[in-house]
Design brief:
The chain has 439 residues and is an alpha/beta fold. The chain contains 12 helices and 20 strands. The chain has helices at residues 21-29, 81-93, 112-125, 137-146, 159-184, 193-207, 214-223, 257-262, 295-303, 322-332, 371-374, 402-415, and strands at residues 9-13, 34-37, 46-50, 53-57, 70-73, 78-79, 101-104, 108-109, 211-212, 228-231, 271-277, 280-282, 316-318, 320-321, 336-340, 350-359, 362-364, 378-385, 419-423, 431-433. The strands form 5 sheets. It has a 10-stranded mixed sheet, sandwiched between helices. Strands 14, 16, 17 and 18 form a 4-stranded mixed sheet that branches. A hairpin with a 7-residue loop joins strand 19 (419-423) and strand 20 (431-433). Helix 3 (112-125) runs parallel beside helix 5 (159-184). The longest helix is centred in the middle third of the chain and has 26 residues, at 159-184. 51% of the residues are buried. The model has no long low-confidence stretch (mean pLDDT 93). The structure holds inosinic acid (IMP). Inosinic acid binds next to helix 4.
Amino acid sequence: MVGSNPNSTAVVGLQWGDEGKGKLVDRLAGEHDATVRFNGGANAGHSVVVGGKRYALHLMPSGVLAPGGLGVIGNGVVVDPAALISEIDGLSAQGVDTSRLVVSDRAHVVLPYHKIEDELREAFLSGGAIGTTKRGIGPAYADKVQRAAGVRMGDLVRPDVLREKITLACRIKNVAIKEMGERAGVETTALDPEAITSEGLAWGERLAPMIDDTVYLLNAMIEDGKRLLFEGANATLLDVDHGTYPFVTSSNSSALGISAGTGVPARAIGRVIGVMKSYSTRVGSGPMPTELLDVTGDTIRDRGNEYGTTTGRPRRVGWLDLVAARYTAMINGVDEIALTLLDVLSGFDELRVCTAYETPDGRTDRFLPDGWRLVEATPVYESVPGFGEDLTGCRSMDELPGEARAYVERIESYVGVPVRSIGVGPDREQTIDAPGVAI
Ligand code: IMP
């Protein structure tokens, strides 16, 4: 029986993604025996520096970059095998040992028709679109939940099962794709189940050595007292159950998804670190109460280089929403906050943080985890003095200007969780750890 495992750590985003989880996971990976992805797919973007070269990872757990560490893709992930193979090849070409990757036989496969469906649905919905990454995430999870035609990684090495499932999927999808294409004015061609099956079998041949039952693997590691690092993709406000639905992704992208997405008991999760930017960003559609559509927003976007790793889209930018942060810290059971990009806020006379919302039902300090309710909320701001100094050279709390420390302290007092590290630049060294904390 697996008991609690104080050695395991979870890293999750507390906002709408892109909080800088990658940098923290890179710092932590070396101290863990495996880095485990539990949700999402190639919609996630994670920039890592390998041998002085920046590499954008989408599916690969960053643990494979740490010497000796295992990278595990859990059952809750949807895997685009073509994207995974291209990441493996790219990393191998840079001298990274990618043989320490294990992929769950139960992880669902993103097939070419999922990307076609994602694109067509977005075109068909036009004004009502989610603004997805078009990586086929929603349609792949939909097939998983719809059951009959959902293809799992283990099926890629079972030709008869694979052919049957893909043939069934194509029968259903050809009807929908033709109809949606005609209505959206997009030209489509009929899916060929044989061609898709052959492609799937080729992926299976290539990935077979990495496909395994990761549930037994992870539980055995926990029993042996090994340290696991659960790496959240996307972020809590995009969680399908607890985010700003329907403007969310299709998985449980908070720490709540770890257990279902890996097959380890919830009590095996030791410490939960919530990563949060010093301001807010969002990509895609959906409400964002503190969004700045003015020159302040443009300045933060440029200074923070707020352009998507996966799609290159400019990110929407806004003041820090503490109402949202307190909610996401609560549902994740966050033990500590890793605050990122504080340096980006230098140079403003005044900073603002949102501490409540005005809504048609009155003022509230509760988050509204429903897109259509949140859209009616307007932020109530508290003004905080800004700081002029450049923070990129600061390496300790004492070196931070008083106003920057006060900003951090306001976050701690409102959210009720200590800030244990502060990012002041993109490099690993540009991080301030609270005294006595080993991150
Ligand atoms: P999907 O996950 O591609 O279906 O996209 C659904 C929504 O989640 C869109 O608004 C995307 O922009 C957003 N999204 C998905 N993954 C990420 C991420 O890793 N960072 C930021 N936004 C994301």
